[in-house]
Amino acid sequence: MSLAILALLAWLVLIVFVLVPKGLTVTEMLFLYFLIEIITITLFTILDVNFQWVPLTRKVEGSFAMYISRSIVIPLPILLAVCVLNSNLKAKWRSVLTALILIFLCLADRIYLWADLLTYRRWNQFSSALMYGVFILLTLWIGRWFIGLDKGE
Amino acid sequence: MSEFFHHDFNTNEWSIIISLIFGIVVVFLLPKRFKKKNTCLYLLCGMFFGFLHDHTLSVLPVSYYEINDSSSFEFMDFLSHAVYAPYSYLFFYLLNLFRIKPRFTLLYILIWAFVSVAFERLFVFLGIFHYQNGYNTYYSFLIYLFVLSLWVLFYFIIQTYGEKRY
């Protein structure tokens, strides 16, 4: 069942991602997606294999569900958060929308826990929220550098 | 499990460092053909696919191979993924340089798949990859054909829609 739930969640994320105006070019979005995915995979591996703070399930169905999560459910909202923070919206709206995305990512974590896809050992929801927050800021910082790269050419 | 791991700084680490330095030098020495953004994207593309496949195939439940000296993720593993960056850049560079038409891309992909398999065999010999659970290079060949086909598709999408804003 976990695979179906994650597939549904991923589909909902894709719907929102496609509908929302992002204000970035295809090149910029792909660069940021690749970057976010590399960081996500690295974080998952370090937290699971190296530290064993957040062990992932070893079941086949659960593993496929987590592949969907790390390819769509986590990277696309982070990319959306970067687009929001980089937009011309008022600061208040940018903060509110980013907070909503952060809450969504934390709720998705609750689903992983509920579906036994991962367990928290030396980790908690606060650590997770902090990690996602830092992750968004880091991506925003690199994204701003990348967006300004060809200016003046 | 640990019998095929050598925990000292030896052949595999030196191979990764030399390959990476060689790749960086090649990227810097080649005459520029792309905008800076596209160059970064083509470099990151290889790293992304390297991470994606290695962290899918080398971890449980399949665990088809181990990378470098331990099952844990180490800095040297990160560098071994960074080697894919100049590799993908060179793939896109030559695709652009020779202006390969879509009907010749299948041949181009096949040549690159053979080259990739040859390099992978070398990396297995040097102790960077350690196959297990029945995995071998023939499976990698299929993966290369698939990934390189995606790259060609990706290249034409970037060429056509790269500057389009959504």
List the helices and strands and how they pair.
The complex is a heterodimer of chains A (153) and B (166).
Chain A: H1 2-19, H2 26-50, H3 60-73, H4 75-85, H5 91-114, H6 125-147
Helix pairs in contact in A: 1-3, 2-4, 2-6, 4-5, 4-6, 5-6
Chain B: H1 11-29, H2 36-57, E1 65-67, H3 75-82, H4 84-97, H5 105-125, E2 129-131, H6 137-161
Antiparallel strand pairs in B: 1-2
Give the key terms:
heterodimer; A: 153 residues; mainly alpha; 75% helix; B: 166 residues; two-stranded antiparallel sheet; 6 helices; 2 strands; 4% strand
Structural features, described:
The complex is a heterodimer of chains A (153) and B (166). Chain A is mostly helical. Chain A has six helices and no strands. The longest helix of chain A has 25 residues, at 26-50. The model of chain A has no long low-confidence stretch (mean pLDDT 93). Chain B has one domain (35-161). Helices cover 66% and strands 4% of the residues of chain B. Chain B contains six helices and two strands, in the order ααβαααβα. In chain B, strands 1-2 form a two-stranded antiparallel ribbon. In chain B, helix 1 (11-29) packs parallel to helix 3, helix 1 runs parallel beside helix 4 and helix 5 packs across helix 6. Classes of the chains: A mainly alpha (153), B mainly alpha (166). The A-B interface holds A 21-31, 34-35, 37-38, 41-42, 44-46, 49-50, 58-60, 63, 67, 71, 146, 149-150, 153 and B 35-38, 40-41, 44-45, 47-48, 51-52, 55-56, 59-61, 71-73, 78, 157-158, 161-166.
Brief summary:
Helix content of chain A is 75%, strand content 0%.
